[in-house]
């Protein structure tokens, strides 16, 4: 299987290529430069693997939640490439991809992205026996103070939401906080890892059915709201 994965939902722009048993990736934290970086990254990976685009079997993409423009860009690129190559698309939760940045043990993982406007995107997971993820709740956008989590004896927290709201989030965690890293972003290599499982299980879709997940319709504050913020 040759699978190309794209993840552009946050400040990090990344692309990964699954080529047989090998995974190679490129990633750069480059706000507002995703559009100029993605395709050159993809071409570099294909060249490194000695593949042309027509050797790809499937395109994978982080579907959000995240920055509106980044999520839209990733989905649009995935759809365009898949249509041109006549291959299917697998969409993967960007929060699930972020969760795989946590240490590999039995602790519960809180993946949390700073959603701006005083809100966070959040979901919690635990690893299964096969190295995959089990979602423990629904992805949501909410105020940090309004976050509700199921009890757990141990936690890992990953994502930019921790950098901004660590004090508030810490108060919602039951049990021991084993690690917390606010510098982590969703990465294409983890999108690829999750998508490969979905593709093997027959869960790929036609490009036109690859849809973004924004979690909220409102993407900017009005001038009045900015004055109150």
TrEMBL record:
Residues 28-219 form the Gcp-like domain. InterPro entries: ATPase_NBD, Gcp-like_dom, T6A_TsaB. This is tRNA threonylcarbamoyladenosine biosynthesis protein TsaB. It comes from the Bacteria. Gene3D superfamilies: 3.30.420.40. PANTHER family: TRNA N6-ADENOSINE THREONYLCARBAMOYLTRANSFERASE, TRNA THREONYLCARBAMOYLADENOSINE BIOSYNTHESIS PROTEIN TSAB. Belongs to the KAE1 / TsaD family. TsaB subfamily.
